[in-house]
Write a structure and sequence with these properties.
The longest helix has 8 residues. This protein has a five-stranded antiparallel sheet with strand order 1-2-3-5-4. A hairpin with a 3-residue loop joins strand 2 and strand 3. By secondary structure, it is of the alpha+beta class. About 25% of the residues are buried. The protein is built from seven helices and five strands, in the order H-H-H-E-E-E-H-H-E-H-E-H.
Amino acid sequence: MLKAIENNSNAFIYASERLRNTVELKLKANKYIYPEDGVNEQIELNEVVWDRGYYADTEDGTWYNLFVTEEIKGYYPNERKVLNALNNFHQLDLSMYEEYNQINFFAPNFEYKFTIDEMTDILI
């Protein structure tokens, strides 16, 4: 599992619950530090895809907490389906997707492809 996470940190989602709770695996999967004050600056988004969204800029890039609309949730009803579509995004966290329609991810400063605009285009 450690090797898989080295290649793609989103492989963390496929680990068993026991493995996901190990410190070593969490550290390997989390390259970027989540802001202490949370992600709470509201952002204007495409209303077809997003119900609402928030961001926080950090020294390394931008964190996003986004909530898909019920219509999009109909196309991507569970964590696995949305992961298949969004597999290459950085620090993708779908742990609250099925219950709250929430997608969290990080866009590093050097990233030009896997951004919020690309995610929006994929989900439409």
